[in-house]
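User: Here's a structure from my thesis project, written as structure tokens. My advisor, Dr. K., wants to see whether a designed sequence matches the one we expressed. Can you design one independently, without my sequence as a hint?
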């Protein structure tokens, strides 16, 4: 096969209706492995920004989990759930947190769905950027069928930001739904006067 021709699997991906780019793409060659791998953000718990954050900087907290606004994202309502204590991955979580993980995932998904105009909620865990355990909840906008599937995170890199008011409203709704079944919301509902 000519090096100027895309691999057949690449051509198939380019034809997918959910892929956000046209055919003018080329696959980069893989770079050489880097071993040992460089440190990630928060490797040392003593310097971990997540560990140092106060609860009132989160949308919602309970004794084990904290929910953060994913600022700078072009889809409204993107949130990040992280463990209160410093753990790196599923392999490090103690049994009590692994037992509470499924129920808190379901609660966060229900809360994000209730934030308005959400078709589905995608859950993602990469772990390459930060060493403090966290998972992303990315709401696919209702009716945006082109954003279905595994390309939804790619769309985050190419869409325009809808504005702070849209984000704040979705995050306030999410925090309120979560707090209604336990934990504490740290955001005021939209339109409410400060105390």
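Assistant: Designed independently from the structure alone:
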């Amino acid at each position: 096969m000519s090096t100027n021709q895309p691999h057949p699997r690449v051509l198939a991906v380019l034809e997918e209706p959910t892929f956000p780019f046209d055919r003018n793409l080329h696959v980069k060659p893989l770079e050489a492995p880097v071993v040992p791998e460089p440190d990630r953000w928060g490797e040392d718990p003593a310097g971990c920004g997540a560990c140092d954050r106060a609860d009132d900087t989160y949308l919602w907290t309970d004794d084990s989990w904290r929910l953060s606004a994913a600022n700078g994202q072009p889809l409204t309502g993107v949130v990040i759930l992280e463990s209160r204590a410093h753990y790196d991955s599923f392999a490090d979580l103690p049994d009590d947190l692994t037992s509470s993980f499924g129920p808190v995932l379901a609660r966060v998904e229900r809360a994000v769905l209730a934030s308005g105009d959400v078709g589905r909620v995608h859950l993602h865990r990469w772990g390459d950027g930060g060493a403090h355990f966290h998972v992303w909840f990315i709401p696919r906008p209702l009716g945006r069928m082109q954003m279905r599937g595994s390309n939804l995170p790619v769309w985050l890199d190419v869409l325009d930001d809808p504005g702070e008011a849209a984000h704040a409203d979705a995050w306030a709704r999410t925090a309120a739904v979560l707090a209604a079944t336990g934990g504490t919301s740290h955001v005021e509902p939209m339109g409410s006067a400060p105390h």
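When you compare it with your expressed construct, this may help: The domain at 8-185 is CATH 3.30.428.10 (HIT family, subunit A).
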